[in-house]
UniProtKB/TrEMBL annotation, chain A:
Family matches, as Pfam families: ABC_tran (PF00005), TOBE_3 (PF12857)
Superkingdom in the source lineage: Bacteria
Entry GO MF terms: ATP binding
Classification via InterPro entries: AAA+_ATPase, ABC_SmlMolc_Importer, ABC_transporter-like_ATP-bd, ABC_transporter-like_CS, Mo/tungstate-bd_C_term_dom, P-loop_NTPase, Sulph_transpt1, TOBE-like
Keyword set, alphabetical order: ATP-binding, Cell membrane, Membrane, Nucleotide-binding, Sulfate transport, Translocase, Transport
NCBIfam families xrefs: 3a0106s01
Naturally occurring in which organism (per UniProt): Micromonospora andamanensis
Annotated ranges, domain ABC transporter: 3-233
Residue span of region Disordered: 314-333
Protein name: Sulfate/thiosulfate import ATP-binding protein CysA
From TrEMBL, chain B:
Pfam family of the protein (one): BPD_transp_1
Domain ABC transmembrane type-1: 75-271
Alphabetical keyword list: Membrane, Sulfate transport, Transmembrane, Transmembrane helix, Transport
PANTHER family: SULFATE TRANSPORT SYSTEM PERMEASE PROTEIN, SULFATE TRANSPORT SYSTEM PERMEASE PROTEIN CYST
Topological type in the membrane: Multi-pass membrane protein
SUPFAM superfamilies xref list: MetI-like
Oligomer and partners: The complex is composed of two ATP-binding proteins (CysA), two transmembrane proteins (CysT and CysW) and a solute-binding protein (CysP).
Protein name per its UniProtKB record: Sulfate transport system permease protein CysT
Physiological role: Part of the ABC transporter complex CysAWTP (TC 3.A.1.6.1) involved in sulfate/thiosulfate import. Probably responsible for the translocation of the substrate across the membrane.
Length: 333, 282
């Protein structure tokens, strides 16, 4: 049930959506395609589903070359950001759709739909129309509909993007647990790094049509391959020519070794304290501390401090020249 | 079978309190009154007057007027051709709307505008156009003057925009992702059209069909020149009504009018029923 993507390229007129992308997605795992909007991750997902044709390259699903297969024959389940509900059909009929198309016996369809509605906790909503459901319920219906046909792979395109923060968080946890039960190879697209870090087994970072890094959440967070991944996965601050996470900086009052600076601003945000330090050469560095760390330091605005990067923490050397415009330099295939 | 849990769902839906049965406020009462007076003056009273005129000769008189050979022939021709035209429009109108919404081609904007021409054109001008194109002096060499085909063609011409215009906005609003979802669930293009797209379009098609039928049944100007108005052959109901009036027989004219009214009403109700059926079946 693995997915092999090799050298896939896709253009929309002059815009290069994907540029020679190769990814192999392991079977039975929950993989996130993470990146900023317009970076090509949704296009890649739609190419896997057959909703979009790649200009170049090859897609293999479960060892079978699927590059030229129409979506009907790929046996993938696809969940859309805006649910794509069949509005004139009841929730039951929505879930049953794929099974009815496959002309399964009525009794089998009924049993299977019952199971799926139970799985997504919509048992008592079977006779409703999609418009009578909340956003979260609709998305669970869409998930049940996609799972009904027992897909080889399950693809979700920003599945929680249209939901409010609380429901999003709930569904995110629920998707993780659902995956632990169902074990179908799952790929989901998100631009939310927290969502990817929390839910995924494996993350593929995609930016400007290229793969920036592939790895587990720990790999990506602790060993970012480049400045882009470092910046995209969480807050960063700059000390000298090093990019570092604000909570990986250590502050000290006694003049031990470290970069000297002066506290210019202290802001408290809930459980964390954000301290801004201006170094001797005028650089403004942000450090985040817990409340206890802050109290132990006993500092205030104007205090002279020393800055140092904690040992074994991820840092990235800043490139001195401006980032190159990759899309403009893409060779034609 | 599952250990995943979630906060129990509150049933959505019935959030809006029922409004029926509430006493009207002064403003809404006034609004309702104005609407009813307006509607009565323009629609209900004239309709009632027609029915009263038709019934002046009693049931026997009405029945004689309607079953008169010549009158019955005009009714059969009018209703039959209108039904046929509506059927053709259901297919062609939907197809044209589809092309206008889904396809990109040179001259699309021009076609958009041209679709409305039969609707905007004064019908007698349409009649003149049809006469000069398909009459005895046809530059195309097609002479259908004085035939039933002339009636059919004139109906087709004036009713063309109705279904196109009712279906087009609905089609444009359809969620393309629903079609993609159907495809990835294994539905062929045809199955997607029949099970997903068509049910969404049915109300619009039915509304357009009702308009197109009603328009055809009462059509006069566009066919009067080309059809020749031959009794028993190409005379339609509206022409028959006029000649009844001219022959000082208002009861007969009203009787034909009442039949047309009843048929139109029946067709509109029937279309509504069909539409509900199709919607539910999916």
């Amino acid at each position: 049930m693995s997915i092999e993507i090799s050298h896939v390229g896709k253009r929309f007129a002059d815009f290069v959506a994907l540029d020679d992308v190769s990814v192999s997605i392991p079977a039975g795992r929950l993989t996130a395609l993470l990146g900023p909007s317009g970076g090509g991750k949704s296009t890649l997902l739609r190419i896997i589903a057959g909703l979009e044709r790649a200009d170049t390259g090859r897609v293999e699903i479960d060892g079978v070359d699927a590059t030229a297969l129409p979506p009907q024959q790929r046996n993938v389940g696809f969940v859309f950001q805006h649910y794509a509900a069949f509005k004139h059909l009841s929730v039951r009929r929505n879930v049953a759709f794929g099974l009815e198309i496959r002309k399964r016996p009525t009794e089998e369809i009924r049993r299977r739909v019952d199971e799926l509605l139970a799985l997504v906790h919509l048992e008592q909503f079977g006779d409703r129309l999609p418009t009578q459901l909340s956003g979260g319920q609709r998305q669970r219906m869409a998930l049940a509909r996609a799972l009904a046909v027992e897909p080889t792979v399950l693809l979700l395109d920003e599945p929680f993007g249209a939901l409010d923060a609380k429901v999003r968080k709930e569904l995110r946890d629920w998707l993780r647990r659902l995956h632990d039960e169902v074990h179908v190879t799952t790929v989901f697209v998100t631009h939310d790094q927290e969502e990817a870090l929390e839910v995924a087994d494996e993350i593929v970072v995609i930016n400007e049509g290229r793969v920036e890094q592939i790895g587990s959440p720990d790999d990506l967070y602790d060993r970012p391959a480049n400045e882009f991944v470092m910046r995209f996965l969480g807050p960063v601050t700059q000390l000298g020519d090093q990019l570092v996470r604000p909570h990986d900086l250590r502050l000290a009052v006694d003049p031990a070794d470290g970069v000297p600076g002066r506290v210019s601003r202290i802001t408290r945000i809930g459980f964390e304290i954000r301290v801004e330090v201006t170094t001797a050469d005028g650089q403004s560095v942000t450090v985040t501390l817990t409340r206890n760390e802050f109290l132990a330091l006993n500092i205030e605005t104007g205090t002279d401090v020393r800055l140092r990067i904690a040992p074994d923490t991820p840092t990235t050397q800043l490139s001195t020249h401006a980032p190159t415009l990759r899309t403009a330099l893409t060779p034609t295939h | 079978m599952t250990s995943t849990t979630l906060v129990p769902d509150r049933p959505a839906g019935d959030r809006r309190p029922a409004r029926a049965g509430l006493p009207l406020t002064r403003v809404s009462g006034l609004g309702l009154g104005v609407a009813m007076v307006w509607f009565s003056l323009l629609v209900l009273i004239p309709l009632a007057a027609v029915v009263v005129t038709a019934s002046e000769g009693g049931w026997g008189g009405f029945w004689r007027a309607v079953t008169n050979d010549q009158t019955a022939a005009t009714l059969r021709l009018t209703v039959g051709t209108a039904l046929l035209v509506t059927l053709v429009n259901v297919v062609m109108g939907t197809l044209i709307a589809w092309v206008l919404v889904r396809d990109r081609f040179v001259g699309k904007r021009a076609l958009e505008v041209l679709i409305d021409v039969p609707f905007a054109l004064p019908t007698i001008v349409a009649g003149l156009v049809l006469l000069s194109l398909y009459g005895p002096d046809s530059p195309l060499g097609v002479n259908i003057a004085n035939t039933r085909i002339a009636v059919f063609l004139a109906f087709l011409f004036v009713t063309l925009p109705f279904i196109v215009r009712t279906v087009q906005p609905v089609l444009a609003e359809l969620d393309p992702e629903a079609e993609e979802a159907a495809a990835s669930l294994g539905a062929s293009r045809f199955a997607t059209f029949r099970r997903i797209i068509l049910p969404s379009l049915t109300p619009a098609i039915a509304a357009g069909a009702a308009l197109s039928f009603a328009r055809a049944v009462g059509e006069y100007g566009s066919l009067v020149l080309l059809s020749g108005n031959l009794p028993m052959r190409t005379e339609v109901a509206s022409v028959r009504i006029l000649s009844s009036i001219e022959n000082d027989n208002p009861e007969s004219a009203a009787a034909v009018a009442v039949v047309l009214l009843a048929v139109s009403l029946a067709v509109i109700v029937l279309l509504d029923v069909i539409q509900r059926r199709v919607m539910r079946r999916g």
